Amino acid sequence: MSARLHRLASGLRVVCDPSPEWETLAISVVAGRGARSETPQQSGWAHLLEHMVFKGAGPRNARQLVEAIEAEGGQINAATGYERTSFQVRALKGGLALGVEVLADLVQRPVLDAEELEREKGVVGQEIAEAADTPDDRVFELAQGRGFAGHALGRPILGETATVAAADSAALGAFRARQYHPAELVVSACGAIDEDQLLALVERAFEASAPGEPETLAPAEFGGGAVSEARRLEQAHSVLLLPGVGARDPAYFAQRLFAEALGGGMSSRLFQEAREKQGLAYNIDAYAESYTDVGVLGIYAGTAAADADQAAKVCAQQVLALIEGMDAAELARSKAQLKAHLFMARESPLARAEQAAGQALIFQRLFSPADIAGAIDEVSLADVRAFGERVLAPRRTASAVLGPKRALNAGKVFGESLFA
Fold it and tell me: Considering the entire predicted model, what is its pTM?
């Protein structure tokens, strides 16, 4: 059976993806809001709110929430990103009603107790400190800040200790009403579910759209610049960014294929050249990150300090060489790898539910595997080259390097090598 998207009279969108032969199911309630919706003074509030709803919602306290789900063999979790916050239940067949009930309470009826909030601020503060102490987390945070300086996309999702500390129950409650506005919610379920039952449960458990419209997000633009942070480490960590495209851009799949060929696997150019041939990096890869309206093409390299500059040069050389010299075999291999990545994830009910929710939020429709495969297959060598040329056109990079002092110039070396 194929997934279907419904818009209920209440204003909610519901994705039904039944697989009656499965013994498990997943339900995901996804809000099309995350850290990107925060003001500078609210940095970290979306993540803090995600924590707080588990401290008590509806008639259940924190312990009762998790016990109710786990007593039926289920698992409950949540995640906060820049543009989405999701609450997820995985359960055995028969767990649909309880999952919908609990998730509806989390999103719509959290207690937000003041004493619990103060305790949770301390927990989040520890999480912020842990990320700062983890080099390969910290370097990505630094690079993101350079790429989108002055914009919410450039602030860490975890926020800062001071802005998290400033939240109080009333302010966080008002923030919740905006973040989880019914018009921005998608309830997506996959697996051992009944479509009619799901629709009836959602209609009963979730509120109708509130008056007014959700806030419009400020547009984002990729900036640039280099930042470095000296640490007494054995290895240097480099993140090198170029401007990419957003999820709605026609070049979206060309971007994904470019990243795949550049550094997506062991046959990729960066792995073969920087690791296998020159031995410059134990860990090196490329990736594409797309938000609604903007994106990045990124490279991560973990190297010895003495090799950081040369690795940056190799990264630049391989970007240029890929634009000039991708052949049909390389494109076909990249397409096969991208399809495998996307379609293997569909073996998980939760991944399918989350993927469909994202499509509903961004495109107001669903795409079948055949739709996605067709879009990937349509990408030509000329499309990939055009994307690469588009990436270089602004002559702008953003980079972060963390590690020994002798490695800290690698980001500048990358830009200079690209645009010499």
Answer: 0.95
